[in-house]
Amino acid sequence: MNANPEFLAANAHVDEAAIKPLPNSRKVYVQGSRADIQVPMREISQSDTSASYGAEPNPPIYVYDCSGPYSDPAVSIDIREGLAGVRTPWIEGRGDTEVLSGLSSEFGNERLHNAELQSMRFPGLVRQPRKAIAGKNVTQMHYARQGIVTPEMEYVAIRENMRRQEYLESLKNSGPTGQKMFELMGRQHRGHSYGAALPETMTAEFVREEIARGRAIIPANINHPEIEPMIIGRNFLVKINANIGNSALGSSIQEEVEKMTWAIRWGGDTVMDLSTGKNIHETREWIIRNSPVPIGTVPIYQALEKVNGKAEDLTWEMFRDTLIEQAEQGVDYFTIHAGIRLAHVPLTANRMTGIVSRGGSIMAKWCLAHHQESFLYTHFEDICEIMKAYDVSFSLGDGLRPGSIYDANDDAQLAELKTLGELTQVAWKHDCQVMIEGPGHVPMQMIKENMDLQLDWCDEAPFYTLGPLTTDIAPGYDHITSAIGAAQIGWYGTAMLCYVTPKEHLGLPDKNDVKDGIMAYKVAAHAADLAKGHPGAQIRDNALSKARFEFRWEDQFNLGLDPDKAREFHDETLPKDSAKVAHFCSMCGPHFCSMKITQDVRDYAQAQGLSEQAALTKGMEVKAIEFVKQGSEIYSKA
Amino acid sequence: MNANPEFLAANAHVDEAAIKPLPNSRKVYVQGSRADIQVPMREISQSDTSASYGAEPNPPIYVYDCSGPYSDPAVSIDIREGLAGVRTPWIEGRGDTEVLSGLSSEFGNERLHNAELQSMRFPGLVRQPRKAIAGKNVTQMHYARQGIVTPEMEYVAIRENMRRQEYLESLKNSGPTGQKMFELMGRQHRGHSYGAALPETMTAEFVREEIARGRAIIPANINHPEIEPMIIGRNFLVKINANIGNSALGSSIQEEVEKMTWAIRWGGDTVMDLSTGKNIHETREWIIRNSPVPIGTVPIYQALEKVNGKAEDLTWEMFRDTLIEQAEQGVDYFTIHAGIRLAHVPLTANRMTGIVSRGGSIMAKWCLAHHQESFLYTHFEDICEIMKAYDVSFSLGDGLRPGSIYDANDDAQLAELKTLGELTQVAWKHDCQVMIEGPGHVPMQMIKENMDLQLDWCDEAPFYTLGPLTTDIAPGYDHITSAIGAAQIGWYGTAMLCYVTPKEHLGLPDKNDVKDGIMAYKVAAHAADLAKGHPGAQIRDNALSKARFEFRWEDQFNLGLDPDKAREFHDETLPKDSAKVAHFCSMCGPHFCSMKITQDVRDYAQAQGLSEQAALTKGMEVKAIEFVKQGSEIYSKA
């Protein structure tokens, strides 16, 4: 059990495990149209192919990197100071915001002036909050609709491209085997995109169009200048979110910051702080000031703390104060459960597992207690006014998501989804950025219906799903029950997958669980990118497979999602360093190795005149392999 | 690293971890039409619902049980003696086999009379091998085609039904809430079966028809009377296989037996012994004599050992001797890579990862060295003669399966698959049971093509796939990359999923890895059963969800695939026993709990007249939720 130890800000320190660069990896930055657009990527270098496989160079590959400055040895990190505000000049440059003289929220001021909190409060430079000048709208969607390409848009375009063209071009010039390498690394299977329109090369203008259309969002609060912008939309790489947050029962501020830095190290594209215990205002400040990725929250959780857990005591006024409090801290997206209307609540009465979303059940309880329409729904345009003054994106919550296979795709869930579609139109009227949350527990054959209805009813606003879990019978393994569903819904068009850890339904995830959840979801997201046919997605698979085939063990580890784990597993059976350059593995042993045989095949094919054989089979259709048919006819006992 | 310690048969002992019944579980047997048909199931008992949720009884549920007599406290296990031969009277009763006076294989006799092996040899009662009387065919397919319903067929029919009808009927009589329980537990979403024909209730006659048609197999060597019969076919529950086996580099006989008992404890439906080190004949004997599940092997592995790893020295004669040696030990299915023809080999020359199947590369090397057609192909009918004399099932190997995303569904793979389809017809001519092995590494959008071609070309012979792995970039997590693909291909129609452990590509799996692999695959198989709409598949999900909703923690753990893990995870955050009866969990804490709120909703719904609401929404179509539309129109700022 995680105790809740006395936390002293003065003692806070960065997790050493979070700042070590990954093996053979180097942080590189691609510069955009202005000097201060420096887009980070991770370059993974590789060794040359050994002589027995052709002695060719293997140029480094480039992968998407969420880890921020933590993995850059040139940057010195002190979490008591927070990260630099890379976006500050962009935000200032637009001239549509003003720095306020103090916090606008009552609660924020209360916490700021509470002397008892001094020892745990984030000690870094206190930023004065920034807000849109009266009458201005500072959302990325607003700019996009005005035809403005922001630095954020250009940044994500460069980021999504991952230097693919440059990498492939460089292969051609990598020596005598350059053309072969170009073809090997660049080849990719045709995807099935289910209607996604994936451009061959991402441009800032395409990003702008997608945002203007509402089909993508860049969560980027003007009070979170520390973020490295990222984009969420069906025509971009599939993203994943990692949830962290303490509860009344455990974990400290230091632990939560560590979970965040740990999560982004392994590939969390955004992080949601779902804290429900005490001091969540202070915890959040620490997380945001140190986070290079967008931070999401569910403000109703904090609002509930303020009324001591009595949902019926919630009011619009104090919820509004909470939104402003968090918006001025820099939260990038808010889960708002405005789709649960009073009339939906009774639809859940005959469910197997009722309402499993915390936010959903809070609002359901409020509606019932007052027998009134939800204040989130009735005040939705008021909320839009706040969102657009700070550019907080909506994550319209699925408070009625199914908590069991039994409840999947039921009337309650779909009624809420329909409402979210209506609210999307309202938010878009205000140029607010919107994504839509989705289930939950759904058996495989019912997943696609979720995606299809969401695309239809929510007009292609990005879908952001929790799993879905494809069976209920495996507590302890729900990262897997849900990765199965996540890969599928990602393929069908979901833009961001909210991870599920092995502790789901059982307890609070610790750092190991966070990593396990992220790994399962990186796998799901990448499998979805491959299936959609995202340009360049296969490069990393190709590079790793080549390393595997050529027994470049270290490269195989380093090109993988988790070099540490791969190395550890390998070393359990073959611990000696020599084994890592050995041309065999522990499955077959040195005696016989299937990989080695392929070289014989190649030699043979060449000797037999592969070109003839290739000519014979060229154009061979899957449905009619002529020489096999012929084989069938000549089949006879020898 | 697992050493290869001196193994002494006299010291062999059953793994204590394998014989402990799972918590709140009891072995029950359902009797068939004769006294000696006793079909095992696991009964999981549950506690009553607490007063706050309605104080109703929750009758036990029944789940499929692969663990054999190990989990029956009434049976005393001594692995030095082996298991009882439950099928012996059935086999004898058919009167078409004879007990031989000795082993037919040269190698078998050599090992039997090698005094040096005495200390490690299985010490139990040495069974004289059994063989079909000359001219007889003893395959289950042969009986099925004669119209004979064997005890094995009846057994699997009972087993597949899992007492579903009896369970549901019993619910109705379980007190005042019986009808409600019947509806809650019995409800299941309509599946999408992709052409599978899943009968509402399994009958022995249906089993017979499926086997006669070649659409299902019961792997059941007459020399393996210890097995509890199981069936593999697209119209039955999706099964999983666990691979075990030592290599030249590690693990002992005791360890391999423990991996087998461990694998079946967690749900392995069959086990393949892929040993490649020394003493594989003796290891296999220990495994078979102690295994209640079918055992599969790849005989070419052992044949290769006999020629000291030199593939070109393999001959039909010594391969034939190996088949007979293993058939007389009781191996239930053989992977035979007869689909790799000489002409296919050059098709792999331009692959990223060449030939990754060990068996495939052995045969490719042989073909190249001799520039001859594979002897497995030319002697295929000779092999059939052996198979039908012992009822060993074919598992036609996919020696050219892709070892990388790059190589997925390529000409080499498909040429082999086509050949496997032709060989299926040949085997069926001999009434031999056949299943077809499948890939490998395949991105999601290309999985269905594999299934469709297999169904077409192999005329619905059961498909048995390794994964497929949906990306190459996650060494250390390939149980997950592949569970994603396995769930999908299982849904599309694959009958058995060969597990992949986290150690895939990296090292030999230990017991932890075996369990992790099995869990990922039990999840995939069950997700597939739900998606196909297998009758009754949802009962366990429903029961577990009800327990979860009612905070019956112990029941939630026990109904899951892995009660130990679920309990351990829960206790990490809330270790106190009291927490396991607490009506909250560590995610929300005692302060506020979403589950609790649903009770309020139910009370409210009742007070508001749920019946009206229900009437309002009854027949509500997904595409047109009227009251939501209405909500849209009345939307206005409050």
From TrEMBL, chains A, B:
Q: Which reaction does it catalyse?
A: 5-amino-1-(5-phospho-beta-D-ribosyl)imidazole + S-adenosyl-L-methionine = 4-amino-2-methyl-5-(phosphooxymethyl)pyrimidine + CO + 5'-deoxyadenosine + formate + L-methionine + 3 H(+)
Required cofactors, per record? [4Fe-4S] cluster
Q: Name the positions where Zn(2+) binds.
A: 441, 505
UniProt: substrate binding residues: 243, 272, 301, 337, 357-359, 398-401, 437, 464
ThiC-associated domain mapped to chain residues: 21-98
Which pathway features in its UniProt record? Cofactor biosynthesis; thiamine diphosphate biosynthesis
Q: Tell me a GO cellular component.
A: cytosol
Enzyme Commission number:
4.1.99.17
Alphabetized InterPro entries for the sequence: ThiC, ThiC-associated_dom, ThiC/Bza_core_dom, ThiC/BzaA/B
Q: What does this protein do?
A: Catalyzes the synthesis of the hydroxymethylpyrimidine phosphate (HMP-P) moiety of thiamine from aminoimidazole ribotide (AIR) in a radical S-adenosyl-L-methionine (SAM)-dependent reaction.
Which family does the entry's similarity section mention? Belongs to the ThiC family.
List, alphabetically, the NCBIfam families matched.
PRK09284.1, PRK13352.1, thiC
Q: How does it assemble?
A: Homodimer.
Q: Which HAMAP family match?
A: ThiC
This protein is called: Phosphomethylpyrimidine synthase
Source organism per entry reads Sulfuriferula nivalis
| Lineage of source species | Bacteria, Pseudomonadati, Pseudomonadota, Betaproteobacteria, Nitrosomonadales
